[in-house]
Amino acid sequence: MEPTLTIPAVDRRTVTSLFSRLRTRKGQSNPLPLYAEMRNLGDVIPSPWGGHLITSYALCDEVMRSRKWRVPDTQWRTSQHNSARWNTPASLQTAKSLPMLNPPLHTRVRRSAGKMFGRRTLAELKESIARNIESVLDQFERNLLEGAADFNSVVANQLPVMSIGQWLGLPASDYSLLRSLTNDQTLSQEFFPSPSQLARADAAALGLQEYFTEVIRERREAPGDDPVSQWIAAWDTLEPDREKADAEAHSMAVFVIVAGLETTEHLLSSMVRLLAHHPEQADLLRAHPEYVPHVVDETLRYDPAIHSISRLAPHDTTLGDTPVREGEMVQLMVGAAQHDPRQYTGPENFDVRRRPSHFGFGGGIHYCLGAPLARLEGELLLTSMLKRIPRLRLSELPSWEPRVSFRRLNHLMVTAA
Ligand code: HEM
After folding, report:
1. To test ligand 1's pocket by mutation, which of 368, 379, 382 has the most ligand atoms within 8 angstroms of CB?
2. In this model, does residue 182 exceed pLDDT 60?
3. What's phi and psi for 222, nearest 5 deg?
C-alpha cells in the first residue's frame, strides 16, 4: 500500500480563489496583499493544479540552490497524464532551452554558451547601449513636451531588443517582429493559458523557429564575430552531426531572445514606475546617484519580471514540515517570497538604500547568464535619466496584462514633474 504522504492543511479551493484574483488586471496592479494572504496560508501550500506552492524565502532559497532538485525537462513533460498541455509546439520549444535542461545535459549546453557577457563584450556593448539610450530618450523627451508620454512603448520596449539585436547581429528592421513573437511565445509559460493564448504562443514559436533557422543558415555560410557564429563553432567541436550542432545553436539563439526581451523590458519600466510611485525614494536617489545599482536590485526584489519558477522533487523529501513526493512539482512563488518579513525588514517598502539578495535572476546552476547585460542596461538608463529627466510623475494608473508568471505592463504614462 502506498504511504500517505500529503495531508494538505489548506484547502486547494482557497488557493485557487487566490490565484483567480491574482490573475486579473486588478490583482496584477498590486499583487502584494494577495501574496501576503498566500504567505499567511503557509510556507508550503497545495497548488491548484497539483504539487505545491512555496511562499517562504528560506525554502525557495533551499530548493533553488540545491543541485538535486530538477527542472521539468522533455522527459518529464512527455510522461505527464495531461501531456497535451506540456507538448504544444511552444512548450516543446521552451523544453529545449537551457533552463529546462537537467545535468549532465545542462552542464554541457551551458558550457557551450560560453560566458555570454564577459568583460570585453560588456565594454563593447556599453558604448552601443549608451548611444541607444540617448536616442530613445531624445524621442521620449520630445513626447513629454506634448504632455503625457508612454515610457513603456518609447523606452522600455525598445532598448532591450536594440541591445540583444545588435549583440546577435540582427537587422533593426526585424526588431518589432522579434518583440511581438517573444511576447506571444511566453504566454505558453503562464499557469492557465487559454486556448487562444496557446494558439498565439504556438504560432510565435513557429515564427521564431523559422526566423532563427534562416539566421543559422546564414551564419553557417558566412560566420562572423558574433555569438551565433560562436555557438555554431562551439557545437561543431562537441557534435559530429552538423544538423544536431545547428539545432543546438538554434535553441540557444531562440532562447536568448525569449529570455532577454520581456524580462529586461519589465525591469526598466518597473524601476521608473517604482521611483515615480515613491517620490521620496526618487529624491534620495537624486541626492545619492551611487544608489543606482541598488535600484536595479531593489526593483528585482520588489517586483521581478518572473514571479514563479518551477522545480521537481528529486526523491521523497520534506520542505519545512510538508512531505513532497519524488517527481512532484513545486512552484517557487518568488514574487511572494521576496516580501517575506522573515528575510527583509519592512519588505513592503521600496527602499533604494538597500541592496538586497533576491531571486530576480534565479539562482543555483540556472542563474541567469544575461544578468550582466540587464544590469548594465538598467544602470546606464537610470544614470542618463537622472541627468536628463530627473523628475517624472505617473499621469494615470499603469495597466497590466492578466498574467501571473511573467508580469507584463501595457502602458506607463508619465509626465515631467
Ligand atoms: C532583467 C532581465 C532578466 C531577468 C529578470 C532574467 C531572469 C532569469 C531567471 C529568473 C532565470 C532562471 C530561470 C530558472 O531558474 O528556471 C534566468 C535564466 C537565464 N537567463 Fe535571464 N533574465 C534576464 C535577462 C536575460 C538576458 C538579457 C539574457 C540573454 C541575453 C538571459 C539569458 C538567460 C539564460 C541563458 C538563462 C538560463 C541559465 C541556465 O539555465 O543555466 N536573461 N533568467
Report:
1. 368
2. yes
3. -135, 80
Tell me how far apart the alpha carbons of residues 409 and 22 are, in angstroms, rounded to a whole number: 15
Residue whose C-alpha is closest to residue 261's, from 406, 77, 59: 406
The residue whose CA is least distant from atom 35 of ligand 1 is: 369
Q: Is 329 left (phi over 0), alpha (psi -120 to 50) or beta?
A: beta
| Ramachandran angles phi, psi of 309, nearest 5° | -130, 135
| Per-residue model confidence as pLDDT tens digits over 270-307 | 999 999 999 999 999 999 999 999 999 999 999 999 99
Report the pLDDT value the prediction gives residue 218, as an integer from 0 to 100: 98
Alpha-carbon Rg for the chain in angstroms: 21
Identify the band that residue 11 occupies on the pLDDT scale cut at 50, 70 and 90.
confident
CATH H-level superfamily of 82-301+360-416: Cytochrome P450 (1.10.630.10)
Q: Which amino acid is at 80?
A: Q
- Side-chain half-sphere of 12: how many Cα atoms within 13 Å? 9
| pLDDT category of residue 82 using cuts at 50, 70 and 90 | confident
Residue 6 has what pLDDT?
44
3-state secondary structure 362-387: CCHHHCCCCHHHHHHHHHHHHHHHHH
> Domain extents for the chain?
82-301+360-416
Q: Tell me if 216 sits within 8 A of 232, measured CB to CB.
A: yes
Best CA proximity match to 261, nearest among 214, 215, 204, 203: 204
Q: In the beta sheet, which residues pair with residue 330?
A: 52, 311
Ligand 1 midpoint to CA 263 (Å): 8
Going edge to edge, which strands form the sheet with 413-416? 149-150, 413-416, 392-394
Atom of ligand 1 nearest to the CA of 252: 35
Ligand 1 site, residue 369, Cβ cutoff 6 A:
yes
Q: Is 370 in the pocket of ligand 1 (CB under 6 A)?
A: yes
User: Cα–Cα distances in Å, from 19 out to 15, 123, 221, 359, 398?
Assistant: 6, 43, 49, 21, 21
